[in-house]
Amino acid sequence: MVRQEENPTTKLVRHALALGCFAGVALVPPPAFADDHSASVQIDQVQLNDVWSNMTVEIPDTAWEASSTSTAVGNAAAGLVMQGTIDLDMTQALEGNVRADNQLLGGTAGLAVAATTAYGNSTTGGTWDGDNYYRAEQVANGDVSANTRVDMDRANNIATSTTGIANVSVPTDEWGKNAAFQIQESNGSVEATTDVDMCCDGTSASFGTTAGGNAMSSTGTTSTNINGAVQTTAAGETISASSDVYLGNGHNVLAASTGFGNSATMHNEWGYASLGRDGSELYQESASDVDSQSYVTLDEWSGYATSSAYGVGNAAEVSNVGSDTGLYSIQNNYGSVYSEASLNGTSSYDGDGIVTATSIGNAATATLCNICGDATLHGQTQQYNAGSVIARGSAAVGQSGSVFGSATAVGNSATYQSNGH
Description:
The protein has strands at residues 11-27, 38-47, 51-81, 85-94, 98-128, 131-140, 144-174, 177-186, 190-221, 224-233, 238-269, 273-275, 282-286, 289-321, 325-333, 337-345, 352-370, 377-385, 389-397, 402-420. It is mostly beta strands. The termini are far apart.
């Protein structure tokens, strides 16, 4: 625990970082006369014990700015090349638990920010003006937990981000080719919580909470981008994202909780892009239960007040601009997906209240922005859902300008769309 007592004009910035195993390589550009520049890197990591970070920032009276960051990662690996080709092979195993705790307490701040991140395994790799050959194998057998608590008097602007994910893989490329494949296995439970108790905010209050089993995210610009993955979560485990927000007087308040079993996303521009391939499909299997909850209570609010909960077993998404695009995926969901969002309070200032709860067993989306008009969209998706899918929303508002509520539950959803100009 860290307690600071400083004068009102001081910035309070504190950061707690816990890393189990870290490995990285960074290469600078080659000399102008070099004909070939490449790197071949292999990284193997095993984390057996627990990893924990804990940060507390307390404002005795008033501060212009207050920032609190807590980050815990079991295994972290990175391979980045500024120019040239990289061949990157990473293997990670987590046996212990990973937990990040973060507290922002005390009086008043002009700007208050709290960021809490817990990853079991994390890999990233890429290049600019070259080719990226990327392979990551990640197994997380321990539990992952990220928790943020805010107990302050007031803040003009406040924002929190709470993220807990068992396995994270991020391959990238610009002006070249990205060929990536990842195997991700989440065998433990994942939890992300945000707990807020405040008098009021002056301008805006935003609280984001995310919990996930396996996440793959890839970006490319003027590049060929081909990604494949096998993602699985274990039965008998829970992936939970929860936000509980109370403000006596709020202005422009947003609380959003997101929970997912497996997520694979890819965004590319001006180059062939495919998430999975015919005969080598992206495979996602989620057997863990997914639970997403958002509870917002405001004695009084102005502007807007939003409570949002989104849960999905398996999600696959690819988007591209100007070039051929493909999505080939197999999605099997066996766990339950539950989302609940609520808003309670009143607004004598004619504020707007918004409540959304969305639950999906399997979701697949492919989008092509076909600017030139000759690019094609292709693919195939197979979806199977055996878990219950439930979405609940409620709004108890004494007085407001308007209230919008939406609860959506979908077993399987697949969308392929091409938009021309």
